[in-house]
Amino acid sequence: MNKQQITERAGRLESAMRSLKQTKFLARDDSGVKDSEKYILWMLATLNDGRAVTPSEAAKKLNVTLAAITHHINSLEEQKLVVRSASPDDRRVTLISLSDTGAAMVETLRKSYWKKICGLVEYLGDEDSSELIHLITKIHEYLKRSKKNDD
Question: Model-level pTM?
Answer without folding.
Answer: 0.76
